[in-house]
Design a protein that fits this description.
mainly alpha; coiled coil
Length: 136
């Protein structure tokens, strides 16, 4: 029995992969900005515009990384919620199919009794297979 991933699962996986790539790129930029910032501090640079720009970039990158990590967490959390929602939908759908099957079988039985017809003939006339109950 093969189980193919649903569209929701694929979308979550694609979003997850895209966010991981973004986080990796931002972390790389953050590391290079941190190295440049530490070099400037080690060389005794005073508060210059270049230093201020690097600090601003460092803070911006740090914020972006945290933001992307939060998005990644949300996608992971939402992914399992989406799958749970799909499972619940499937469960409800199966119950509805069972109700429909029971109603069909009951209707055939009542028609058979009321009009004195055989259930076999009714099933043939309405193209209902003899193993209809077992097709679930």
């Amino acid at each position: 029995y093969w189980s193919f991933p649903s569209d929701a699962t694929k979308n979550v996986q694609n979003e997850n992969a895209a966010l991981k790539i973004k986080v990796a790129a931002l972390q790389k930029n953050l590391k290079s900005a941190t190295v440049a910032f530490e070099e400037l501090q080690a060389n005794g640079y005073e508060d210059t515009t270049e230093r201020q720009d690097l600090i601003a970039e460092y803070l911006k990158l740090n914020y972006s990384v945290k933001e992307r990590e939060e998005e990644l967490y949300t996608v992971r959390k939402g992914g399992s919620a989406a799958l749970d929602q799909k499972k619940n939908y499937i469960k409800i759908s199966k119950l509805e199919v069972e109700k429909l099957t029971d109603a069909t079988i009951s209707a055939i039985s009542k028609i058979s009794e009321r009009f004195d017809l055989s259930q076999f003939n009714l099933r043939q006339q309405f193209d209902i297979p003899s193993d209809y109950e077992d097709d679930l």
